Amino acid sequence: MNAGVLGIGRFLPEKILTNFDLEKMVDTSDEWIRSRTGIEERRIADDATKSSDMAYDAAVKALKNANLTAEDIDLIIVATVTPDTPFPSIACIIQERLGATRAAAMDVGAACAGFMYGMVTAKQFIESGTYNHVLVVGVEKLSKITDWKDRNTAVLFGDGAGAVVMGKVSEGRGILSFELGANGAGAKHLYQDEYIIMNGREVFKFAVRQMADSSVNVIEKAGLQKEDVDFLIPHQANIRIMEASRQRLGLPEEKMSKTIKKYGNTSSSSIPIALAEEVDAGKIKDDDVIVMVGFGGGLTWGAIALRWGR
Ligand code: UT7
């Protein structure tokens, strides 16, 4: 039996920061941001809202959607690069708030690929029979590590959280294949000092190749053909990077999630947020084959082919 998704939830802060707002903050334009990245606006958490608050909200919704309670959870994994403080982990903070007293808890740091790393880790525990239910959350408050004077990065990022509850699903459904990878030699291209420092062009080149390769690799590993893919959920980093994956899979435009337009790049929360939106919108139905693929600072990457449904 495969591990799959039993429930899903997301949280987006209310405050919207538009490209026009950014025009007043740095030397940029709505036209530049829109055409180079596909972003029109992003959400920004207020000062009082911590990463753990957003993670908690998304987790509560995912548990409800899965028809499970906090006591059912055996393990909590939170993917993030913006924990409230280096320790305790966000996983421990929400373990207490949820009342998931039986659950082990840890954060994973794999930047924008973190949610893929989290889901694959959950799969190992579930399919080995060690744990029944694993809560996986992706959450970021990137606004607190964004240099709002640096136009290279300020236009890209946003805040938010997404969560899934994973467990055993019916035969044929769930995670069909995955790929995880890292190249520490590329760490210098994307890292946090006080703020996010990024060599955009280098990251772009890496991402275009890696996202497209990984998308195809997981389909082959699953013994499927490109034609079998129903929907693509790429990490929402840049529409031009996402398009490269879509085109390699030969998918029509409407079969790819484009929440980037509204939320920008929310790092490890971008994939679960996009997944939750598409499921809610009825774009992903039971037995659809979806490909999720992400890349990020590290450099890291990860992809999953999954047949949707419990
Ligand atoms: O989750 C992973 C996080 N990182 C990423 O996904 C980033 C990947 N990289 C990218 O998405 C793109 O490289 C960017 C969106 C960051 C930049 O787009 P680009 O097409 O690679 O632009 P560029 O860096 O080649 O810059 C082109 C021009 C430059 O001006 P000159 O040298 O041609 O005169 C930049 O100075 O655009 C200028 N520029 C801007 N102009 C207006 C750079 N940022 C901005 C800006 N507004 N915000």
Question: Can you put this structure into words, describing what you see?
Answer:
With 310 residues, this protein is an alpha/beta fold. It folds into two domains: 2-169, Thiolase/Chalcone synthase (Peroxisomal Thiolase, Chain A, domain 1, 3-Layer(aba) Sandwich), CATH 3.40.47.10; 174-307, Peroxisomal Thiolase, Chain A, domain 1 (3-Layer(aba) Sandwich). 33% of the residues lie in helices and 25% in strands. The protein has ten helices and 13 strands. The chain has helices spanning 19-23, 30-37, 51-65, 90-98, 114-127, 151-154, 200-221, 239-249, 260-263, 270-280, and strands at residues 3-11, 16-18, 41-43, 75-79, 104-108, 134-141, 159-168, 174-182, 190-192, 196-198, 231-234, 289-296, 300-307. The strands form four sheets. A five-stranded mixed sheet has the order 1-7-6-4-5, sandwiched between helices. Strands 8-13-12-11 form a four-stranded mixed sheet, sandwiched between helices. A hairpin with a 3-residue loop joins strand 12 and strand 13. Helix 3 (51-65) packs across helix 4 (90-98) and helix 7 packs parallel to helix 8. The longest helix has 22 residues, at 200-221. The chain starts with a strand and ends with a strand. The relative contact order is 0.20. Residues 28, 32, 36-37, 112, 151-152, 155, 190, 198, 200-201, 203-204, 207, 237-238, 265, 267, 296 line the site of oxa(dethia)-CoA. It is found in: Cytoplasm. Its main location: cytoplasm. Homodimer. GO terms for molecular function: 3-oxoacyl-[acyl-carrier-protein] synthase activity; beta-ketoacyl-acyl-carrier-protein synthase III activity. It comes from Bacillus benzoevorans.
